[in-house]
Amino acid sequence: MKGKLYLVATPIGNLEDITIRAIRILKEVDLIAAEDTRHTLKLLNYLEIKKPLISYYKQTEKNKSEILIDKLLNGTNIALVSDAGTPGISDPGAEIVKKCIEKDITVIPIPGACALINALICSGLNTDEFLFVGFLPVNQTEKKNKLEELKKECRTLIFYEAPHKLINSLKKMLEIFGNRNVVLAREITKIHEEYYRTDLKTCLEKIIEPKGEYVILIEGNKNREKENLILNELSLEAHYEYYLNKGYNKKEIIKKIASDREKNKNEIYQYFIKK
Ligand code: SAM
Questions:
Q1: Residues 10, 95: one domain?
Q2: Arithmetic mean of pLDDT, 151-172
Q3: Average pLDDT for residues 218-240, to the nearest whole number?
């Protein structure tokens, strides 16, 4: 019989944030694949669990996946853990899950801590709809392009960021998004846990030396909603004219109108063909 792969969420700070089921699974599996075996060993010692460990990190994900798949096919039950939080979320995991699906190996989530979700629920920002971006690209041009792409997004934006890149990212966000509301969720579940709810300008004036782990949450674009409301009250011809004056071609305009009005592209296209 094939083994099973368990994706086990571990604490993001406070070691008590691990479920009873996660502890049982870590005790029951034959092998634990860990992003950093030394880091995981500390958690296992705290939980008084002794298990063979194998390293599984981003740079070796492809190669190590093959090894783990062989073991799973031979009946080994494996728990995959990252250094903190949920595996596969800005952490290794996705590669082996794809391979397990290909080989018809059962993948089971063991839910638990995840920084983005806990940052969001404490942020005070809209939680109905959100977009998790994760880490921004390191390359400054790619970073700028990514933020430009997100400028019109109405949903709450969630980013992970390293402390030494925090100021640079906030500056770029101010430059591209304008002075939006921001929440910095810092050191969630740890001693220095705090939620700084302000706007980007004030945030940049106040933060001098970022320390610890941060999740950045940016309020979605409110102007886009307003802009859309106005545009959608226009006739389709006036809506078309609006984008024509902005220099878009016919194909782009139809796509934009369809997106503004949440209609099918073809429907808009047919309207203009019949005119
Ligand atoms: N897999 C993890 C999860 O489920 O949240 C995320 C791992 S990612 C490599 C690490 C990033 O998550 C950090 O740079 C930070 O942005 C965020 N993070 C992790 N733990 C955090 C915490 N306790 N407080 C604030 N942010 C945290």
A1: yes
A2: 97
A3: 86
Q: Are residues 24 and 88 in the same domain?
A: yes
Cα separation of 175 and 200, whole Å?
Answer: 10
Could you identify the atom of ligand 1 that is nearest to the CA of residue 9? 4
> Is residue 228 pLDDT above 80, yes or no?
no
- Number of separate domains in the chain: 3
| Residue to mutate (ligand 1; options 59, 184, 214; most atoms within 8 A of CB) | 214
Categorise residue 195: left if φ over 0, alpha if ψ from -120 to 50, beta otherwise. Answer: beta
Domain that holds residue 249: 234-274
Is the domain of 183 the same as that of 95?
A: no
Give the end of a domain, one of 220, 243, 264.
Answer: 220
Looking only at Cα atoms, what is the longest distance across the chain?
74
Ligand 1 centre distance from Cα of residue 179 (Å):
25
Whether pLDDT at 94 is above 80? yes
User: Among 79, 113, 147, which residue terminates a domain?
Assistant: 113
